[in-house]
Every structure is written in C-alpha cells, then in structure tokens.
Amino acid sequence: xTPPHPxxxxxxxxxxxxxxxxxxxxxxxxxxxxxxxxxxxLDTLDAVAATPAVTPVIALAGDLSRATRGGQIRQxxxxxxxxxxxxxxxxxxxxxxxxxxxxxxxxxxxxxIGMDTPHLHWTLLDAxxxxxxxxxxxxxxxALDGGWWALGLHDPVDAQALRTVPTSRPDTGARxxxxxxxxxxxxxxxxxxxxxxxxxxxVTVAATVPGGRFAAAVFDLRDSWLVPVREQx
Length: 233
What we know:
Elements: E1 7-13, H1 30-50, E2 55-61, H2 70-76, E3 81-84, H3 90-104, E4 110-113, H4 122-133, E5 138-143, E6 148-153, H5 172-182, E7 187-193, H6 199-208, H7 213-232
Parallel strand pairs: 1-2, 1-4, 2-3, 5-7
Antiparallel strand pairs: 4-6, 5-6
Helix pairs in contact: 1-2, 1-7, 6-7
C-alpha cells in the first residue's frame, strides 16, 4: 500500500479590499493591495500544485465571493481540501488548522506556509516535505523580518506548542523555535526568505520572480508611481 502523502497546508485570507495587506497602503490603494494579495496567493497555489506527492489543503479566512480574483482562486483550489480558519487570534487559528488537518488526515506530516512568499519554488516545498516524510520532527523557515515563512511538523498536533507564542513581532521566529524545543521537538532549519509585509518587500520579492502574477501586479503599481516623476522632468 502506498503511504499517505504529506499535507501541504496554506494559511490564507481571502483578498478582500481593505482587509488584506493593509501595510501596503499607502502607496497602494486598498483595491491595489488586494490585487497584489490575490496574485501572491495564486502564485503560491501554483507552487503547491506543482509539488509532487503532497496533499494540498488550504485553511481560509474570509469570503472568496467578495475577494479580488475570487473566481480564479476558486478554480485554482479545485481538488483541494478547503478548511475554514477558526479561533480568536492568529496563533489560535494556526494551531486549530493543524489540529483540523490531523483529524482529517491522521498520520500525515504537515508543511504549512502562508500567502506572503509568492517567490517560493515547488522544489523547496518538495525537499521540505520529503524531510518530514523521512521522520524530521519539525522544520522552521525563518523570515528576514524576524518571523517565519514555513512550519513543518511530523505530527501536526504538536502545533499546540505555539498557541501562546505572540505573532507579528521581530522575535516571533526565535520564540517559535524556542517553544517547539521546549515542547520536546528537534527543530531543523529551512532556508531563510523574505516575505511580503511592506511595499519595499513587495518590490524586492517581485524582482526575484519577474514572470509571475505577483510581479506583474507590483510592477504595474510601481510604474504608476513613476509617471508623475517623469512628467515633472
């Protein structure tokens, strides 16, 4: 019998204008920020879909019927398991998503990412999933801002270790690693990566994947900033 595939879990928020990527505004408008978020999510879903021998799952917050590119996102999620996020805080929602996956897919390790790394390539996801499948207890990918971009757990129930870890702080990554260690897990590292919180982040990340939807959305917006400057010359 073929063993079950690792779960590749995406935590995402429906890209509704005014509800996502608010740190991009200004210079982006809420609608432009939602477009950038939608493109980041679609590029991320493409990377997951290209990863072999994984079970794709998304834990989604918000209403895709109100979202920018909601129809495209629904189409990209065809064949995926779609779970609703639930919990009072982001840490609660993260832990609950892992517990929901553990209940739905017992015995399968989980690699969890977000929608802030549209430059993520499927080969990195594949290598990480294989490590978890081979028995690695925990994986953590540090983000350059002090957070983290990926969490892998051989047993997703162990996500409970993170329920009290504060998020969106410069030391969130370090606190996460410490909490997993105190839970009794050996934590291995994934490569560090930039994620997208600010417009400077977005421009930097877009430059690394110029052919994607995300880069097109960011560069279209950047070009609109440059028009008044050119006209003044």
